[in-house]
């Protein structure tokens, strides 16, 4: 397994807590974590990305123990985060945002190719590369956030609610991109509230409710289980 | 038991008496002038803390008000021969008006808090100083006070100034004590901790800040008025330099600026330190030592000496059992759902720039009803709550609560008309105990009541939400679950006609959720009308009389929970068309 | 109304005086804008450097440029050491203001103890030299100060906008958590930036030693106007700080020529008040 989380327990400030979550992501796999708001999805990805500390549990990336290393060292192990709400560096230009993605030496060495690849994926960003990120539309900002993650040349990309606040057509485009990222070799851990989209693209999925994994499996199987319906509709 | 409240009542009269008799004791004039300086700094530091310590609006412009008061007296007495004592009321009123003028502009701008307010007030000081210097008020030459007769309240002139200083100092401390234990003080402390929440709980923040600013400036002004006589020769550079604003900040921060007598402690310590090194080159050493003391104090006692001592004191006395109060139940008999509409929203629209967050929502909520507000992320649920509670102004549409149009009422007025809300991420007043949090919400939000009654009700609501025994705990000492319930207790204590709950259950573990659901049921049994945003759908279905589904800023479906949540259109926005079919 | 020549000369000397405002503002602007630390001791560090240059020059006869080569790295170390304290105690914006004020007072006391409160003047050959351009005189030292300030502002701007370290610092100022997720070790960079800010105080101090009369109490003379410059120039923007400095220097000087010297402070602080009320999002 590329990413192995075992019995993770994260409990941080007023963030929704996560209790005893175990999940795996294999190389080249797309794994979705779905669940209603407040289930702890964002807490979980933030912990995997190193933004939050885990109280208990194990986190391994390609066999390397990630617990105890410092927040700024996660990236060098091949994890890149596309955070909820984008969290771009709003006053900096589009290109500067992208360049922050390749801050580490290994990624910096291939900056030109990475940049070219991102502009190929999102041609509109090439036009706007000198504009401050804050001036972009929501969809374009999401493109920058994804581009920033790709610049790091990650082995696994963590997506946190990439469809949030975007128009349906743009959501479709984002999910196409997620598919392409996988086809180019990176694994994807996708946290998403939009169930049809998240299950449509995933190889496997986990359902998170109140900080726990209530069920997991292949997307088609999950849809047949009552858990999702209960979690989302309460009936 | 309550040291902060009872000790001053005993000690104060004795101390005042002793100090008042001191000039007659035949001490050298040196002592009179030293003690005068102590009174001077105690008054200035305490007056600064009224706004900057209590409400957290950190001002570096205290010299402006002090200086304007000083020049008011100097000009009236030296140039227009007004008797000295008669100039003092003017020395209070003019700085107070100046503060109200500045506040009326600055307090309307949300962004001008923190260090920007500090710098703005500092800039105002320099501008006022320059204007005084270049106009006939001063004229550049300074003003001599030597010809101004000093009323002989005491045998010696220094004695007279001493007594005036003492009187102002006592009055200032009394004012600070009074404010600290009043509704105004409670509101200011709430503003200090979280101004938006204070407003939403019914604190008229703008008026309170203006009042505190005016009071603070008035005291600084009269201190300046008396100081004009003490100084004798008045210059702009001597009056408006950085000494006053910086020393009052240092003194208050050292002593504890949120406490009414913290600044006084700091002022006594620093004045004594400076005075004991007053001889020539030693003065600079005194300042250096003050610097060292301050660095140590800020790094190790960031809240100041007095709050730190209080904390220690509390720890020692924590073995004593909390005073248990027999609480009269405030339970209102359960009522069936009425026909009267508590909430009537028509065409509610909210735009953020180009984003249409709410696109014309109509929603009626009947008395005693629980309406669950659900929908995907970004569908406008929390925005609707924010608009009803007045946190955001409406773009268009109307909202009426209990038949009364809210229109463009400020949030605190809406709170007083019976709308209470909780926050998804709890936002308690961090420097107030759990009990004080609830008392503040009850005093500003509910109908006017006596303080005893409010106190008992607050205890009742804390017990009701399972927080009995945690009355004296600061919010930081509560876990997320308890902080969420504290939010509920605060909202309930305001006796709202309409209760808005924003994700009370999110982040709780299953046992806590079950607990919270029981609590919401109990609230409902008392006849409350509730609109709640929630993502835990089992709870929504279980608790709601009706469910309103929002999608993309519009009311998508409304009706009985089980029917609505089985509606294929609703199912499809959550789980996709394939699933709904 | 004064003559055109007089106004022109006022404008020139104002712009040149503004160079000093800009130079002093740069270090403050960097630490405030990018680290959220308000460093009042910046002025005291500048004067400490000035006294050091004075001492080296008068007692040891070291040329000021060589003194600067010693003083600036020393200031860098002091700045980094200060940051260690801020880092260790997690000092916030307001507390940093009070702590650094205390530093400044202690430094002032130290300076007074060693060099006494007397006014001191470092007499050098170039102090009085000036270039004549048409009807105007341009003092050489002030011109050099402006050129150095300009080079530093431009260099810092390039460093912040064109290098990875500079971009990482700006990114961390906006969202340190996400910057860290992309590998930025913000704490390490903060030491570097604090050192650089203090190094600028060293450079400013060298010029203060050459241009101004030194006295311990003079530490506070520039405080108000430089703060106005920092804000008007936008926090964290070295070019903005320099331009705001030149602008305020020029307008003060012209106001002094037209009205009276005593009106000068109104110019900068009115500008500051207008900026804050006009657009509170400015900084």
- Proportion of residues in extended strands of chain B: 5-15%
Radius of gyration of chain B: 28 Å
Gyration radius from CA atoms of chain C, angstroms? 19 Å
Termini gap of chain B: 68 Å
The total tally of domains of chain C equals 1
Describe the biggest sheet of chain C?
A: 2 strands, antiparallel
Taken from the alpha-carbon principal axes, the silhouette of chain C is globular
Mean model confidence by pLDDT of chain B: 86
Annotation, overall tally of beta strands of chain C = 2
Distance between the termini of chain C: 36 Å
* Strand and helix order of chain C: HHHHEEHHHHHH
Low-confidence stretches of chain C: none
User: Helicity level of chain B, as a percent range?
Assistant: 55-70%
- pLDDT under 50 segments of chain B (min length 5)? 319-333
Q: Number of helical runs of chain C?
A: 10
Secondary-structure-based class of chain B equals alpha/beta
Strand tally of chain B: 12
Q: How is this fold's topology laid out?
A:
The complex is a heterotrimer of chains A (235), B (581) and C (283).
Chain A: E1 3-10, E2 18-25, E3 30-34, H1 41-48, E4 56-61, E5 64-65, E6 79-82, H2 94-101, H3 105-109, H4 111-121, H5 123-127, H6 138-151, E7 156-160, H7 168-183, E8 187-192, H8 195-201, E9 204-209, E10 212-217, H9 219-224, H10 226-233
Parallel strand pairs in A: 3-8, 3-9, 6-7, 7-8
Antiparallel strand pairs in A: 1-2, 1-4, 4-5, 9-10
Helix pairs in contact in A: 2-6, 6-7
Chain B: H1 3-21, H2 29-52, H3 62-80, H4 84-106, H5 115-134, E1 143-144, H6 157-180, H7 183-193, H8 195-200, H9 205-231, E2 233-234, H10 236-239, H11 243-255, H12 262-276, H13 282-300, H14 305-316, E3 341-352, E4 355-366, E5 370-374, H15 381-388, E6 396-401, E7 404-405, H16 411-416, E8 419-421, H17 434-445, H18 451-464, H19 480-493, E9 498-502, H20 510-525, E10 529-533, H21 537-543, E11 546-551, E12 554-559, H22 561-566, H23 568-575, H24 577-580
Parallel strand pairs in B: 5-10, 5-11, 8-9, 9-10
Antiparallel strand pairs in B: 1-2, 3-4, 3-6, 6-7, 11-12
Helix pairs in contact in B: 2-6, 2-9, 2-11, 2-12, 3-4, 3-5, 3-9, 4-9, 6-9, 7-9, 7-17, 11-12, 12-13, 17-18, 17-19, 18-19
Chain C: H1 4-35, H2 41-59, H3 64-88, H4 93-115, E1 130-133, E2 136-139, H5 140-162, H6 164-181, H7 186-211, H8 223-232, H9 238-258, H10 264-278
Antiparallel strand pairs in C: 1-2
